[in-house]
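A protein record in our archive is deliberately plain, so that people and models can read it alike. The record that follows is passed on verbatim for readers who wish to inspect the format.
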Amino acid sequence: MSAVASPTRPATGGISARTINRIVIYGLLALFAIFYLMPLFVMLVTSFKTMDEIQNGNMLALPQAPTFDPWWKAWGEACVGLTCAGIKGYFWNSIKMVVPAVLISTLLGALNGYVLTKWRFRGHTLVFAMMLFACFIPFQS
């Protein structure tokens, strides 16, 4: 037998620094997510309340008697602009504009991506770089 002892692992009795860092990071992320999503929560909860509950109560409180009446009124009777025909016309107009735009954009993007990966020509890296650069230019300009 040799006189050299084998190295032993130090005892780990506590929480490692990496675990503490992860707890802090995820805690901060959860806190920021709550702050970010709070207006959405308030908007949705308030939309199911009656007008008396909105005027009398806490805005974070859940509705005592949830109702869909504000949703139906907004859809069919809300005064938008000069008419009181609700938002259904505007909603369908938005759908008619967005769906074709997304489909065309997706199709053109897929075709461009395929061509840029398969077709090699002189200056193809420059064309690719210019297309990437164009992605960072705001649409409004």
Remarks:
- Helices lie at 17-47, 51-56, 69-76, 88-118, 124-135.
- The two ends are 80 Å apart (CA to CA).
- The chain has a mean pLDDT of 88.
